[in-house]
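Ticket #4471: structure export looks truncated?
Reporter: QA, pipeline team
Priority: medium

Steps to reproduce: submit the single chain below to the structure queue and open the exported record.
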Amino acid sequence: MKHNWKLNVSTMKYLNPPDSFLQDELEVEILDDGGLQLVELSPDDPWLADPREPEELQEGEVKVTYITHACMELQFGETRFMFDPWLKGPAFARGWWLLHEPPADAMDRLCSADLIYISHMHSDHLSYPTLKDLAKRRPDVPIYVGDTSRPVFWYLEQSQVPLTNINVVPFGVWQNVNEHLRFMILMDGVHPELDTCLIVEYKGHMILNTVDCTRPNKGKLPNNVDLMMSDFAGGASGFPMTFFGGKYTDSWKETFIKNERVKLLNYKSALVKSLEPKIYCPFAGYFVEAHPSDRTIRETNIKNSAENLNALINKVAPDIKTWTPKPGSVLDLGLALRDPTNRAAITDPPANAQIYKDKWDFDLYLNELNGAIGSEIFKHKSWIQFYYSWAGFKNYNLVMRVIETKDNFEPHAGGYDYLVDFLDLSFPTARPGREHFYIEIKNRISVMRSAVLHGRLWDDLYIGFQNHISRDPDIYHHKFWNHFQTELPVSAPDWDEFLQQAEMGSSCELM
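Actual output as written to the record:
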């Protein structure tokens, strides 16, 4: 049973925990002996529409170049297709930084791309610092995203990045680029509001990129693709690293993280083995908590290595060729398919190429975040009520305490410390006497205020390791986190209106 889900067989309705993910729909079959059998419904195989026979690929016709993290450049003849370009700056406010140094010509490659796919809105895939530079040179480059319920580019207008050719395409439909090249975007079965994955086909040869999907296309994927790419690293969540109190000791976290790494390796290797791609490449996991204030996170939040995953795949599925990429390394798909043992199929970067980053522009990006601290709105305590009213989360028996802190998570001298009762969206000075769920969140003041000021999602805080969390009882509140991570209003709070109201209130007090 997943997540303690239960099924009432008399009504065939799930008895969901009130605060959990939705389950996959099950179909009931009556057996010959009168018993019941529950069958998981199989999603469609849309890639089978208009099948094409594979044609032989010439040397150099299809090249796959690893850039950094989840960014790949695919060259099909004269057409260049780029995935998830994060080439500069941090992701999740200031929590994630690139581990791999992109090739020196990475931005030139991006600006010369014929089309770009961005899998989802997380900032290690949709990088506004990167896209800002792209827009200066190619504002009209075609960018393709899936039709998720939360638009991938929901923040575009506020970002002031002038991209003009963003294309939202339906799931499971071939998009023709030219007579030989087409692609199809699929949704994730666990996070359909957020994640997508991709199939690219060229002359009948398929490349599958599952990106960060937890259960891509509800688990139904094409077998025997020519190249499969997926994430591998783990460590991409605030849990358990940002949790404190009770069982969340350093030793418990280390043990939990180690066990999760093993489970993820086994899951990924089993998935690859079951799908039997001809070639497999782990990517989308090359990030580091580089800022000095996050040293403890970096030292504890150990991630899987691509080498270890590929070694496991080589053991359980020796017929699958694996590729551990370095920035600038190139896979010649035609050569690799013709002879998987041909060393010329993979070109490594020059011997003097820098593989790992050793410096980041911390000050540039942290100064931008710090600029939010002194915003005029925070001079008025009523911003708290205005913000959470805008956020729109209520009718849930959860009381939250928020403490604005310094980098070390000690209270900030000029910060706020307040309670929000989400049952009636009130702001008490003490916890209510009734039974209620309780969560205490210590947020770094610059990241919290930047999120408030610009109406950003709380992924910057949670996935970016920018808070410390304790809860009583120790229960995950999916409804709460899902709202603040994916369902906040698309339009930012109207702080001009707020300041007018605040000034009017101050004037009335003086009269």
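Status: closed, not a bug. The export was complete when the record was re-opened. Leaving a note from the reviewer for reference: Residues 375-509 form a domain with the Nonspecific Lipid-transfer Protein; Chain A fold (CATH 3.30.1050).
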